[in-house]
Specification:
2 copies of one chain form a homodimer. The first copy, chain A, is 45% helix and 15% strand. Chain A is α/β, with parallel strands linked by helices and 343 residues long. The structure holds a DNA duplex (16 and 16 nucleotides).
Amino acid sequence: MSIQTLAQDLGLSISTVSRALNGYSDVAAQTRERVVQRAAELGYRPHPGARSMKSSKSNAVGVILPMDERGGQFINAFYSSLLGAIAGVLDARGYTLLVTTHFSPSVHDEVTRYEHLIHSRSVDGFVIVRTLLKDPRVQLLHDRGVPFVTYGRSELNIEHPWVDTDNERAFELATQRQLRQGHQRIGLLNGPSKYTFAKLRRDGYERALRNAGLTPTPAWIVEGDLTESSGYTLTSQLLGLPERPTALICANDAMAIGAIASCRQHGLQVGKDISIMGYGNSDASRYCDPPLSTIEHKVSDNGRHLGQLLLAQLDQLSTPTLSYLEPVDLIARQSDGPAQASG
Amino acid sequence: MSIQTLAQDLGLSISTVSRALNGYSDVAAQTRERVVQRAAELGYRPHPGARSMKSSKSNAVGVILPMDERGGQFINAFYSSLLGAIAGVLDARGYTLLVTTHFSPSVHDEVTRYEHLIHSRSVDGFVIVRTLLKDPRVQLLHDRGVPFVTYGRSELNIEHPWVDTDNERAFELATQRQLRQGHQRIGLLNGPSKYTFAKLRRDGYERALRNAGLTPTPAWIVEGDLTESSGYTLTSQLLGLPERPTALICANDAMAIGAIASCRQHGLQVGKDISIMGYGNSDASRYCDPPLSTIEHKVSDNGRHLGQLLLAQLDQLSTPTLSYLEPVDLIARQSDGPAQASG
DNA sequence: TTGAAAGCGCTAACAC
DNA sequence: GTGTTAGCGCTTTCAA
């Protein structure tokens, strides 16, 4: 079923069919309708390869997922929801989501990967995830004039559409809650500091502390890779400190669950001897012991916005740089609690 | 940088360049070397669109992920590792992994999605995940003569390469362990029965029971969607039974963690009052309370094999139907334990 | 408002 | 062993 056969079937020329299908204005309304309907009946789908040759349009959007330092992980559950939502939005508009991986830790290699996809015209635009403070991908795509949206902001002086969760606010809220419960020594189990989200979370945390008249203590701010294991290890480390934190705020629920395990091992009752908060409101956070106080954010909302902002770029409908900052909510459960008098 | 420019640069015809690059034998070894080297220097990459028009080769492999019934989830952490490993193997051979979603619950729509990808020549082959007992996708791809590998077997009478974990053995092992600890009333929190893996697990479970002279009790075999929530709900349901199971075997660690939460709520001490086992050896299984006895299996090994079997198909090197059955191991931790005398 | 025709970059007959 | 050439299916001038 090529445009050729379809045109023959309709007794029209292929160019008329093409124009009708692509919404050109110089086609009789009646003709267009006839074409569109017959195309649907026959299940005609333009060959993406042929199309991309002429128009350099691939009708695909690329995502290159950096593999975890630990290797093996394609994406975690979090990115699952995000990409699912993006795919849904794009799908409705005839775009496919091309998901690829990037194994090498070298930033140079990563940029090469983007260049290859651009050059081969495999994609019309990109979604960048795990945005870095100084993100070479943002620089590259901007320089090349390739449409893209980032999940997370960068600190480069480049205007571009982005979607982000209000990380700063989230961690300010969490910290304020711990402060209100009387905690003064609050640890932060953060993500890798090269990521913008980690910096923003730290900012929010430090702001809350300062507003309470406290000075952040570097020793209580540690970084891990967002897994249960790293939460466990980092917590064990913090608990070994001469002056240990009485409260912990974790970069995600998985780390918090690792933190809880470590506290248990140290004979501390979570929610009483030590106050722990997570982030993400994962299914697991509801069912761990004790249930985790955490920050809710609607991952799929973000995905939807990412998809929409990218489509707007691709349509070139809107030149203004749009963005979406997702609000956050605190969900109180039982893993946090007031500071002990002896704390 | 088209083959045209490259050919001019080399002072050769484009066909010679094409042949050299595609490894045809009728090219002087010296010429080939010169071409290959210059192509690399200039960073020449064939245009996938143009290539797919002529050769119907896209150098891409498709995976269509059915969205969860719950919606929103693109893939869970499990498929993350699997797809990551597949992508790695394919990547090394110049193939990209095209990951798409499928939203509609209708099987008809799903098959249409495959047909579209085939017809548009967007992919050269498929990896089918979550294989069903009667899988229309297997039927379709077989009928169309499109290369594919399945993760999980089907019960259709169709020979095709597959990779699977030894689900039957895994659940036989788990059941035997519970039996050895003196349990007689063993519940199975299974996955949806339409999936082959769920049937095989039930088979393994029932075989172990029968070999021990027991008859499986239908009321103790329940199905959920592999989330913590469903583990929680199903366990609450089983615990409400007049004659409740004293041991549970769960289809994955997430369900087991939900099960633990439910038991805690019912005032049961897991590992003592009730014996629970999971499956998957996830990071979370190590850090929950009590640490989960579970089944280890190497997800990324499976991904590697899937990639290799598919490449073999694509190369048409090997017509014999290959397969790989992954062995499993039991990991004993503290969530299971001997049956109570009063049990 | 429609049709004819020129390619996009590539592969694979076929000729030399 | 290498070059010539005919399309693959499509979009897009340009003519009618």
